[in-house]
Amino acid sequence: MSTLQVADTSVQPAAAPPDAQPAPSRRGPLLTPRRSNVILVLLGAILLPTLTYRAMPLLPSTYPLALAVSTSLAVGALSLNLLVGYAGQISLGHGALLGVGAYAAGIVTSGAGWPMWIALPVAAAISGLIALVIGFPALRLRGLYLAIVTISFGFMMYNFVLQWSGFTGGSSGVNLVRRLWGGDVLTAQSDMLAAGLVVLVLAWLLDSNVTRSKLGRAFRAIRESEPVAGSFGIDVARYKLLAFVLSGALAGVAGALYGFTLYLVNSETFNPPVGLDFSLLLLIIVVVGGLGSRAGAVIAAFVFEMFEFLIGDRFGTSSFIYGIFPMLGSLLLMFTVAHHPDGFAGVVRERRGHRRRKLAAAAADESEHPMPVLPSMPRPAEATRTLDLAGGVPLLDVEGVSMRFGGLVAVDGASLTVNRGEIVGLIGPNGAGKTTLFNCISGLLRPDAGRVRMGGRDISTLSAHERAALGLSRTFQQIGLAKDQSILENMLLAQHVLAGYGSSSALVYTGRVARSEEQMRARALEAITALGFGGREDVPVRLLSGGQQRIVEVACALLTDPDLLMLDEPSAGMAPVMAESLADRLRDLRDSMGRTVLLIEHNVPLVLDVCDRVYVLTAGRVLAGGTPEEILAHPEVINAYLGEAVA
Amino acid sequence: MITALVVGLVQGGTFALIALGLVLCYRGTRVLNFAQAEIGAASLFIAWIVVGAWHKPYWMGALAAIVFAVLVGLTFERLIVRPMAAASRLTVAVGTIGLFGFLVAAEAYLNGPTPRFLPPPIRGSIDIAGVAVSYTQLLTFGVIALIAGGLTAFLRRTDFGLGVLASAQDATAARLVGIPQAAVSMFTWGVASALSALAALLIAPTITYFGPNAIGPQLFIGGLASALLGGLTSLSGAIAGGLVVGVLASEATQIAPNGVAGIYTVVLFAIVVGVLLIRPQGLLGRAPARAESA
């Protein structure tokens, strides 16, 4: 299978053969993400400004200004792309966040006399803080609430705060002083452009660190499905807020850059009476450029701004074509969402998508095979367990759990225990409340009554992602994977709770992050190879058959090295050949990997065959519990459920 | 105080009309329409052309504005909303932002910065308990009561209306029981656009002169806060929310010291944040977990 793996030009540590490394390096290929980071920084900090500095005298004198404006718009586009493109949350008040950054930079440079390079982080901090405050109420909820809060915020900023003459200078605005240190001031626009480009490179770097760490994976998973992200152990509300705060901070930097370029900001700078409001302009740029595409956002920012500038330069700002520019931009936005929702970057990607389609073709039609042996995947030694498992208590102890939906009692005082090393089955007719009970145990639902304990610890009040971090992992009847993402991405997502680094170190991609990422990737690829998906790790999960998706899902659950594995109808969607091999795979989990399993399954003979103990649920109540033999002999069970199926 | 209350109720009534349109589109097609108020604001310029430039009677201008708004809404529905029935709701919402931007840009380009004035439908006022209430304000109350009552009754009493309300919960199921989704989509967008034009026409006398991008954002944020306060899915909540928000905004403007303009925008923002923090399901809506995931 691994022979299918063609030479991959992207920077992927595990994809390169091990002998490609030079002698001094301990492991991995030449261009690790960290090293390419360093190269990018050097390139950005030295080459770009020098080049632009040399090139600018060759261009007409108005170009440096237009290019500097484009640069700040590009930073703004990166900021909005991070939020909308990665995390799938809309902000309609980004112009106001840019404004906050610009005013902050103006107040500290002209008021307090600070140099501009200190003003940029100050702008980032203040805009980020405001994003934190206004994002908090909206992002706890699922839906378009961030759009609602941010549009109201922008309206208030434009019509009240920025008009308020005492603090923000009203319509006369605030000056931004481009002082570097001492009496040195950046006077030429080409100098400002060079400075802006350095900032753009840094922003690009930050953004790429986000996308290749657990942050970006969490954002993308949230964009696709919040419940799926939550079941991977991602704290959805926290990560959405983190995306908005990062985006807000970058927006503050973009606004400050824009302000420094213009020397002055006032209440109309980001909400001009003629032309597009910055919130709308940035949205057009990131959607047309391609949501989720860093290069698309930056290129679109430059293309839009330079196009408008060149039209104005060539035909004059009172020309017909210049006047209809805002209308054209809005029409382009509507056209893009209706016909090319992935924007320009999506069109380019589609054109280059032949290889992926071939891989997908290779992926299909393998469901007639038995289920492969599942890899055990113990967790790395340094990822310590947070749950102290006391001896003598059951691993899972569910006591009197009840769950009501309106008038319907789905689960009614259900109790069960699962001991370490057991396979416990949960059977019952449709609508008996099995999945609801699973949801109560895994934390997706908060039961109306009852307790859930794991290893003696009461976990009833913990959320799903907290329970996942404690070593409780589950699969879903309808496949709980991020289906638009690749197999590899899902397997990395599954290890979210194991990632040995924090969000702030992810932003600078420290050595610790690099090592942790490398390790997670190696584990994922090991699992992928073991399952026979080698060479197809980049295939999106939705292109796999139902059975293959199930295999990936169970493997993802195993990658967290769970203490308790909860499987909700694993045979659903499997072809018969594969379903037959399920019993052996379940026994492997217990016998050779020492896992503990709680299993919902409609295939009663399978359950009676592999389970150590079985609970029968009817109408939300536990009707009986015991060994398969006891269950088979239980008269009520035979009456209520099994009937002639086993007779 | 009392005068501000009357002004607030008029303004709140127009917020309620916008909020009704938002709820209607949200329930009919699960789209939050960010152009909901701008459709009406743009059509005010049509009314001005008919009444102000061509010197035709007011009712003709109002009719032209409503017809224009409905045409805009139906065109958008046909070209963007319906083809994107299967697309993510986030993407469709972005499309409505595009419509908003287009209308604002078109107003600015075609009209220029010149402010326009639309005379009130009826001149004169009447003294009610010591407060001068203009006939236009009375007319506004009447129109809003008529629409709110009529629309709610239509949606709740007729099969088609119930179908519209059912579509939001489960479009597939609604289609399976024979509710034509295309008709529901056209109905919600057409009616919502007409409501938008009515709201703009009714608030215009209070605002007197209007330029491009002047009435729309104010009506929209007010309507949005009202819909949110009402629960985003509730028709009666939208109306109640509109009146509450309108009065609060008007009283805030009354209380604020001279020279502090735009204080009502702070009130609207505070209402939005307050609802999300304290009662995300609004006064009369369903639990927020049911809110459509974008």
| Percent of sequence in beta strands of chain A | 5-15%
Mean pLDDT of chain B: 88
Give the CA-CA distance, first to last residue of chain A: 44 Å
Largest interface: A-B, 48 and 55 residues
Task: Estimate the helix proportion of chain B, in percent.
Answer: over 70%
Task: Please state the CA-atom Rg of chain A, rounded to the nearest Å.
Answer: 28 Å
Largest sheet report of chain A? 6 strands, mixed
Main sheet of chain B, how many strands, which sense, barrel? 2 strands, antiparallel
Structural class by helix and strand composition of chain B: mainly alpha
> Which runs of chain A of at least 5 residues are low in confidence (pLDDT < 50)?
1-27
Widest β-sheet, arrangement of strands of chain A: 10-11-12-7-13-14
Classify the helix fraction of chain A into a percent range.
Answer: 40-55%
Q: Regions of chain B with pLDDT < 50 over 5+ consecutive residues? A: 288-294
Shape of chain B: globular
CATH topology of the largest domain in chain A: Rossmann fold
- Report, as a whole number of angstroms, the end-to-end distance of chain B: 42 Å
